[in-house]
Amino acid sequence: MTSAMSSLPDFTADSISASGRSSDKLNLATLQSKIKVDPEGYTSELTLIYNQFKSSVELFLQQAALNFTSLSGISADSTVAKDLGDRALFLAHVTPFYPKELAGFPNELVRFLESSARNLPSGLRVHVTQALILMINRKIIDIADTLVVFMELQTVGDRALKNLAFSHVIHSIRRMNQKHKNDPKNRALQNILFGMLQQEDEAKAKRALITLCDFHRRKVWFDDRTANAICTACFHPSSRIMIAALSFLLDFEKIEDDDSDDSGSEDEPATPHAQIVLSKEAVYKANHKGTTSSKKKKKAKLERVARSMKKQQRLSSEKTNSNYYSPLNHLKDAQGFVEKLFSRLQSSNERFEIKMMMVKVIARTVGLHHLILLSFYPYLQKYVQPHQRNVTELLAAAVQACHDMVPPDSVEPLFKQIVNQFVHDRSRPEAISVGLNVVREICLRMPLLMTEDLLQDLVLYRKSNEKAVSSAARSLLTLFREVCPSLLIKKDRGRSANTKSKPKAFGEVHVSSNIPGIELLEQIDEDGDEEVDEENDGVTSDEHDDNNDQEEDGVSLIDGSGESDGDSELETIGASSDDNEDEVSDEDDNNYGTDDVSDEEKSGDDDDEEELEESSLMETDNSSIKDADVDKNKSKAKKRKFSDFEGQLSAANRSLRALKKLAGETSNVSSNTDDGILSNEDFQKIKELKAKEDARSTLTKHGFKVPTSDQLSLKRVDAAKLEANIRKKLTKDERKALMKAGREDNDKYRSKTAVKQKKTGGSSNKQKEHRKAMPLAAKRSKIARGRIQKKKQSKHSDKQFRGRKAWK
User: Fold this and answer.
1) Which helix (H) or strand (E) holds 23?
2) Gap between the Cα atoms of 759 and 743, Å rounded
């Protein structure tokens, strides 16, 4: 101590007074503000305070080495500890201004906390930790160099220090990964926490597990390494660490299930979120209007709005995303994890609640990854009893562990025991309904377990008077109408039942040899061709009828009309000619008709010759119509379509909307699927047809649809749903409370006087009239009227009818 003090430089009175020092102490706050203005002018004062800090730290280190705990020691002196904490905070504040002079100060703080953190007073520990956090936030020292210290500070036993160190670790690593993820740095930090999690020290391993779980829950470290580290904590020698890891996995399952239920519920109205919109006017004002300070405020507000919009978009995309994010889903060796955890379950002496947690995790992993653990089902068989505690959770775990890759022979003893123990005539209705629901859920995953005789016996429970039992039996009946209707008797199959549908055999896999849904597209193409043929048939039959009507009426076709009928024969012969040539031929025919009319007007003497020519033309036309009737009908149908297309083109020249409609019609032409090449429009059409087919099937099946095995494995089986529609019996006190609950705040059962007494909406008009200050004459007249009314009432008092009249 003396050698450290002798090495300090001698300061003059002027320098000490200039630094803000009074008599013995330095005013650190004043000196700190002056150093920020002029760092070079206060180097001597900084050196003095830094040397004082070093000497105090050396004294504390010597005391920690000697394990000196006397009451007269320096650690018991609160003023010395306070001065040391103040100097540490002061040096942390001024470190950016003296990078060379205080280069070793952060590492000294780290070593000081590592060596003697447990022996320091609580206030001094907090001050030194705050100084270290300040330098980490200013990026003077890296979080990787101090993570071990902050994790050990959480095990000291100081609650304030534990909260401070934990919140700093969480926020600093979150801030580091906020803009982009630095994978090498994250891996280094993860290795530190993974190493602490594998230590036998329970306190350190617990804090490391809590930190990893918090990062995974906040989706900061949302990768396979973190998920596997949390899952391997289930094998820690300490039972507390194992329980913490199991509870996190099960709670994460509950969180995921609650989120899916909230997103899927349509009955409950969703809470409306305020929609944030960035208007052009706000952006213009922030950049061009107002003073500099107001522009800064407006720009900052716009940035906050943009951040909140990005956050809302991210949350909405996470909600709509169907990926499953359970840590159990990211296991690298799921089979090894399940076998190791099951062996620990068999040899553990923990209480029943802990064993149930292990059973739930094993069953969830088996169902999620479609694993095979044949010894797990006989283990569950020991606990399948109606009087067993938490039997519904146990049955839910049994259902979760069933999938189509498990051999039915290994699950059959458990299945039969559930039926025999729960579903019989002497069992309670609650047990029967739970048993039927469990049978339905197991058969949904493994329908090969059900036999014909057993199914027919279980279906008879739909006639029960208990609602829970009858609804459970009807749900089982509905399931087997879809899965395997042949097991049901004929009257129970329903109208739309397909007797050929059977469940897949064990190990059977459906391999698709073609694009799924292409048969729907081919069916639509065939239907479209049939509709076109029907339209053509309708058009030709109508035209043929028109021609027959014209012939029956005996209308003579003269001049232009006759020529056009003659040209129709040419059109049938040359049907492959171009459209322009057809238009030109029509124009020539029209001109030829007009020339004939003009010739008839000029030459009126040759009428007899022209009548003979017209009769010959009619004969040739009739013969041509009879010879080529079918070809003429086809050509006229084509000509009608061409005229429609010509009208659409003329409309498209006039309006943009008609042009878009015409382009849409031409682009919707289905491609030829014979070559096996499909376009994007075909795939989109297949998707739409599948959706329509699913909607149609769900409507015919009253909304019931058998989910796939992948969908069943992702969804957690809720034990509360196995007890659906079960009404628990109420005690007498509960029934009384239920009756009184509806009458407490109901004005229907109150007297009017009680309602008036509890009225809080102000006084009535009558009460206000009584409070009015009336003139003296008005008061006297009122009193006189009252006396007269009383006299009238007293006269008729004997004759007055008391009570309610019969006719009212």
Assistant:
1) none
2) 18
Alpha helices (runs of H) in 95-182, residue ranges in sequence order: 105-116, 122-137, 143-153, 159-176
Contact by Cβ (8 Å): 774, 782: yes
Query: What pLDDT is attached to residue 528?
Result: 53
Q: What tokens does 285 get? A: 């004002």
- The b/e string for 277-286 (b: 16+ C-beta within 10 A; e otherwise) is eeeeeeeeeb
Q: Strand pairing partners for 26? A: 21
Tell me what pLDDT residue 300 has. Answer: 85
Low-confidence stretches of the chain (pLDDT < 70) are: 1-26, 63-78, 252-279, 313-325, 524-649, 651-676, 695-705, 742-750, 759, 796-808
Q: What pLDDT sits at residue 343?
A: 95
**Cβ within 8 Å of residue 214, ≥6 positions away:** 170
Cβ contact 518:526 at 8 Å: no
Q: Are 150 and 165 in contact (CB under 8 A)?
A: yes
Strand (E) or helix (H) holding 20: none
The C-alpha atoms of residue 556 and residue 545 are separated, in whole angstroms, by 17
CA–CA distance, 754 with 746 (Å, rounded to integer): 12
Cβ(671)–Cβ(681) below 8 Å: yes
**3-class secondary-structure state, position 417:** helix
For residue 409, with 0-12 CB atoms within 10 Å meaning exposed, 13-18 middle and 19 or more buried, which class applies? exposed
The residue type at 498: N
Tokens of 621: 């036309």
For 37-130, strand residue ranges (E) read: none
pLDDT of residue 555: 36
Which pLDDT belongs to residue 763?
74
Residue 652 CA to residue 550 CA, distance in Å, equals: 35
pLDDT number for residue 317: 60
Helix 408-422 and helix 429-445, axial crossing angle in degrees, nearest 10: 160
Backbone φ/ψ region at 727: left (φ over 0), alpha (ψ -120 to 50), beta: beta
As a whole number of angstroms, the distance between CA 245 and CA 494 comes to 49
How many C-beta atoms lie closer than 10 Å to residue 403's C-beta? 20
What pTM does this model have? 0.63
Read out DSSP for 184-229? HHHHHHHHHHHHHHTSS-HHHHHHHHHHHHHHHHTTSS-SHHHHHH
Q: What would the 3-class secondary structure string for 432-476 be?
A: HHHHHHHHHHHHHHCHHHCCHHHHHHHHHHHHCCCHHHHHHHHHH
Would you say how long the chain is, in residues? 808
- Distance, in Å, from the CA atom of 419 to the CA atom of 38, rounded to the nearest integer, reads 86
CB distance 341 to 235 below 8 Å: yes
Contact 360, 343 (CB under 8 A): no
Burial (CB < 10 A; 0-12, 13-18, 19+), residue 325, is: middle
d(CA 11, CA 17): 10
**Rounded Cα distance, 482 and 706, in Å:** 8
